[in-house]
Design brief:
123 residues; alpha+beta; 2 domains; four-stranded mixed sheet; elongated
Length: 123
């Protein structure tokens, strides 16, 4: 009986160890990817090539302001119009909508997801 139990217990231990090592490797890989994204975003902010937008819904439009300076940046009735308006005004910069009315953010996020699925815009 003991001759059977030892290989089973060792096998379970080795299997659990391999699974844990694989999980740690996956977490490390994801953290490295996130670290690269954060570094890229910080570089864009430092070089002033990224504008963080705050969105405010007014009537049937979304008004976008620079989050830090509160200056008006662009407007549009949907995410496609916002992107087009932003690119016309700042062709060499990127933007991200990070603040604003929660309902407006949810609508724009849904529109962005639909638009990127249809490949109708690039952000």
């Amino acid at each position: 009986m003991l001759e059977f139990l030892i290989p089973v217990v060792v096998g379970i231990f080795l299997g659990a160890t391999i699974v844990q090592i694989w999980q740690v490797w996956q977490i490390h890989r994801e953290l490295s990817r996130m670290e690269e994204e954060v570094a890229e975003t910080l570089e864009k902010l430092e070089n002033e090539t990224l504008i963080i937008l705050e969105v405010e819904p007014i009537n049937d439009q979304f008004l976008c302001y620079n989050h830090f300076t509160k200056d008006f940046v662009c407007k549009g009735r949907n995410i496609v119009e916002i992107v087009e308006s932003f690119k016309q005004r700042y062709p060499d910069k990127d933007a991200t909508i990070a603040k604003g009315n929660p309902a407006a953010l949810a609508v724009l996020k849904k529109q962005l997801k639909e638009a990127t699925n249809e490949n109708s815009i690039s952000v």
